[in-house]
């Protein structure tokens, strides 16, 4: 089974890119972020035409998350985090799909730092950690996937010295990511490629993609039972080079059957 996460940066504006990627790579389950579309404007029909069921949590102009599946029905279990500090922002959706509990998330950016947006990021991250603990306690096979808006280590960012004051690289945010992993989650890309240079985001400015001046901010975290089934993980970098594409590339994992 192939599970992917992709920040589409506007699901309607980038729809040709999304559909091309779905057709070429055929992931089984997909977590999408940054839909930038209200609930009624999600492009369900063309996605269904490719064989995918869809569940989405939209928001006008900003945010928005969705789950896609071509391996069975999507059974929603949660929309939004418990005790979310701002429930008006659509940032989390969770469902059971083909025997796996999938949590799709879009963690706040948090800039400028310091300030209220950064405080919201920390508060939301703490809510995620609390909910993630209950997911692990359930003993279910769980994947938490999405745009975490954090570069966990210096290996995950081009020229880390340039990011010292940024909310995506703040010590407090990186510490929360470590706290999340210490619950027992496996960072799938790093589990299989501990020393590799891996990026999932390249800015539109300063020719960043051509220079490979990237960040690794899109993650797929696995509960222990799923981590034991992990056989491959990577990034579909080529998608970032397509015309009118997102500034992110899809990240993915492959799991063996039970």
From TrEMBL:
Record site feature (Interaction with DNA substrate), residues: 248
Positions marked as site (Transition state stabilizer): 149
Highest taxon listed in the record's lineage: Bacteria
Record site feature (Important for catalytic activity), residues: 218
Record-linked Pfam families: Exo_endo_phos
Active site: 106, 147, 248
Sample GO molecular function, one term: metal ion binding
Cofactor note: Probably binds two magnesium or manganese ions per subunit.
Domain Endonuclease/exonuclease/phosphatase: 4-248
Cofactor needs: Mg(2+); Mn(2+)
Entry-linked PANTHER family: EXODEOXYRIBONUCLEASE III
Protein name: Exodeoxyribonuclease-3
